[in-house]
Amino acid sequence: MCTAQYSDISITLSQFMLKIVGIWMSANDAERRHRKFAMAYTIGLHIFSLYINFTDIYYSWGDFNYCIYVISTLLFIVLSFFKITVLYTLKTEYQNIILYAQKNFWHLKYNGNDKILFMECRKFCKLWAITACFFMQASLSFYVITPLYANYGKNKSERILPFQMWLDIPMSMTPYYEILFTIQVVSVQQIGMSFTCNDSFLCILNTHVAYQFRMLQCRICNLWKIIAEQKNKIDYTEKYYTALKECIRQHQSLIKFCDKLQNVYTLPIFAHVVVFSLLMCIEAYEILLTDVPITTRLTFIFTVIGNFIHIVFFTYSCHGLIEESTNVGVATYTGWWTTLPMTEAGKMIRKDVNIMMMKSIRPCCLTAGGFFPVSLETSTALLSSTFSYFTLIRESSTRIEGN
């Protein structure tokens, strides 16, 4: 298979963010040093951000609304830190996934129906990459706009930072303010990319694998187009068996690739699913029930929309993986293999077709920690949990205010 690489915006953006975070593979010693530095830089900023938020909760304990706001930020940081830690720990397996995708998915030698499907896949990935980056940057930008808007017209001694810090220095005065402001903005940007890049790249991989399964279905169906024209079916049976073996090898290869995806991403998926409903309910609480500046409210509005789109796109890509891997069995069964003569090749075809259909009965899927497969039903279940958590936190807030 041709390995000539192509580049589109989805892969370029994902590759850029993964390199900045320090997870992308390295081709030589210089790149390896860059990746190690980027990962150390990312971990350092996560630890710094955890320190800021934990100390803020400690000193602000008792202010329910403000603590809820800080907890939402803290959950983002912890989830992002957990994801990059898992992927960095499994970096060898992760790099093997990237190399396989580069060799078998991202090449230019497609033709006919495969090329049409590949272009359709490419459009979907572009849409997802642009949407994910837009809402990420929109949410992060308001963390910077909020303090700038609040500081407008105030004295230097009254200036505030994006995140409150408890240090025994004049933080509102030059140069402390400028230094701390820059560090916090850089931390926000790095954590935002760490939070988004892994899931964004996983959605792209899921989509490409699903379309590879669809291409395989088309190849299997196309094997039968000229059978009615064959006069010598014994000779055709031999040729068909050779072509079928290529399809079987591709099917086995795709199943192994899905198993690798499952091994690498199962824990990050589980963590995201566990935290998602709590994050969404806190953000909805900040939008609807608290008295916060309009810029802070816009921060949470963009974050809620981005998280909602993210979970829908992600579960849709996982659902497509389940559907298309199952449809391979349907495509295999609908062929005219029962009309082939009972030669040695004909018997082997029937045996291999049965095995291929049995393999497809158990679809390829990604699970959340091995507990349940992720599909479109997962998104509806998570949104239902979000409403339940929101009701609970609203009642808790009402009870605290009543006391």
UniProtKB/TrEMBL annotation:
**UniProt GO cellular component terms:** plasma membrane
Q: Mainly resides where?
A: membrane
Sorted alphabetically, the Gene Ontology BP terms of this entry are: signal transduction
Q: Does the keyword Membrane apply?
A: yes
Its subcellular locations are: Cell membrane
Listed GO MF terms: odorant binding; olfactory receptor activity
* Alphabetical UniProt keywords: Cell membrane, Membrane, Olfaction, Receptor, Sensory transduction, Transducer, Transmembrane, Transmembrane helix
TM spans, by residue? 37-54, 66-90, 127-150, 269-288, 300-317
Look up and give the membrane topology term: Multi-pass membrane protein
The UniProt family comment states: Belongs to the insect chemoreceptor superfamily. Heteromeric odorant receptor channel (TC 1.A.69) family.
Question: Which protein, by its recorded name, is this?
Answer: Odorant receptor
Originating species: Tetragonisca angustula
